[in-house]
Amino acid sequence: MKKIISALILVFMLFTLLISCTNSEKENSVTNVTPVINALELEDTDKLVIYGYFNLDAILKPAIRQFQRAYSNVEIEYKEFKFDESFDYNAFKNMLKTELLAGDGPDLILAQDTSLFDDIYKTMDSGIFMDLTETLNADTAFNWSLYNKTVMDSGIYKGKRYIMPISYSILPLMVINETLEEENINFADFSTLEGFTGAIRKYMANNMNNPDKYVTWSQSGSNIMTSFLNYSNINILDYENRKVDLSDSNIKNLADTSKDIANYVNNPVRKYSSYNSARRDENGGIIYKHDATVGLRTGRIFFNDRLMFSVIENFYFEYGGLTFDRTPLFTNFPGTNGGTTAMVIKFAGIRQTSENKKNAYNFMKMLLSYDIQMLPAQNPNTDYNLNIPVLMSAAKAYAKVHWEKSDMWGTPDGSIIWEKVPDEVHEQFIDMIINVDSCVLPAYAPSNLVLQGFEPYFNGEKTYEACISDLKTRLEIYLSE
Q1: Could you read off the pLDDT of 94-144 as tens digits, one per residue?
Q2: What is the set of domains in the chain, with CATH numbers?
Q3: Res 285: pLDDT
Q4: What is the model's pLDDT at position 32?
């Protein structure tokens, strides 16, 4: 029980915490990268150092080829850290941190996600990143109107633009109307955070002693609630003013929901902690290939949270596999503002001490170019994994590709028949991924403090109020360091 509860407390660890395109649009993008007109008089050099890790090489290598065609005089030193059994992510992070603090390392810092740094905000405070504001303002070739402004502006901190997002994610929720009717739950409840968590509690109360009912695909606790807090738009830490605010009632709501999920998961009648576990055989093999689709169709899953991974691809795959005999419904995860909260995934920044800032800047523009941002749409079966590209036309094109093939799947036994996602659903989904209301950069370092702070509440050793008081003190000390 304690192990499960401890994992649940990670709910608070990240607390912040179409393939067609008109010729005129392409010309106005940054495809044909022009020499930067910069007010900072960045020096011309003939070198650029870049590091790649995980699957960043999927977009880096095409960008390198494009850059070399445009800037043949620049030598690129590309250090690729292979993502295999020998790759040690923590060792890589420590190596990079040591190099950057010593004024060394890559000229362009590329991140698979914000976990590359223990705390992205303290990293920005450290002076590692160059402020891109003046250079971007002076670069008349860069067309901001083509990009998702809300997402792009999440890279501004204390009035300076240190981070340039390359891709982002959102958290759509998908449920089955027939399941809601069976559980006597109103889909309208999903429009608010309080209503949504209330629906979860009602579902668990209805099925506490049913060993074959799961809240979601990965309901073990931590990965659900961590995601929830990411996308809830609850601001706990104010890095700029060094203040801690734990007064939001939604924090207790999520904490109480976590406790309820822990009790549900820990019920002795339930052999597995999640549907993701239940779908595997005793050797770990997958029993249900189309797992989330099967789980939703059969009513074994209340809602699907897996859509945040490869959002666009998974949305059309899951929805298309449900329409022939079920009534799927979807909505955005209900943040505290009632809108859709996005989260930055891949991003880039330029090392402040780099002697090759101009080359780094021009390469960063390559990553934002039409050609690179369109890679997932033009090659949908390859691992470019941009999730949602920041170039809006690329995001729409990527969605269109998967929409058009949403009826091309099927199971050998005919148990699932994929149908094309309706036009109006496609348009609603496009609206959801493009018109986001806020965007966060998750911070990771305070997770241990939060873990220690809330564990007594989950274990029943302290009241919520006592834990909040202790945690606030710890976080205030953390911000002051």
Answers
A1: 999 999 999 999 999 999 988 899 999 999 999 999 999 999 999 988 999
A2: 1-17+171-336+405-436+445-481 (3.40.190), 34-169+344-375 (3.40.190.10)
A3: 52
A4: 41
Mean pLDDT of all residues in 440-447: 83
- Strand 167-169 to strand 388-389: parallel, antiparallel, or no bridges (unpaired)? antiparallel
